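Q: Carbohydrate sulfotransferase, please. Structure only.
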Amino acid sequence: YRRLHAKETRLSKFNQTEIKAMLGSYTKVLFVRDPFHRLIAMFLQGMGISPSFSSFVQEVLDSGMHNGSMAWKPLVSLCRPCLIQYDYVVMFGFLGQELGHLLRQAGLPAGSLLPELTDSQVQWTYRWLSEQMFSELSAQQKQQLSRFYRRDLAAFPFSSSFLSE
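A: Structure for Carbohydrate sulfotransferase:
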């Protein structure tokens, strides 16, 4: 795209015609992750100053949609899947299956570029962690988190998410 090297990097800096041309010239890939798993990962990485997962979740809920960190904002508000027609949506936990296909579609040698991914171990570990962390939350926090991430839960098939139960 002709303005690839322009100073503006956010789509909002371009007009609609430029955005359409730019997006049409790229293969668009969206990587998604269960919002509850994202919260667990951020807590474990020390993204908040909270001593417990429950207080970290309360920080996230108190910060709200507009004042919160991009790290925990709902994906729908960041990636605009209703406005941008992504060519591929790759779900965390299925990377081993989906990345090989994506690389082959791009004409790249999938086997030599991919690290060994153990999706089933990742899914089991996050299931266990989710159970532990979810049990720390109050019923009100669980309900508020489900509301906070309701558009992500509606847009993507996180069927085993604790937030969709």
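A: Brief note, in case it's useful. The radius of gyration is 18 Å.
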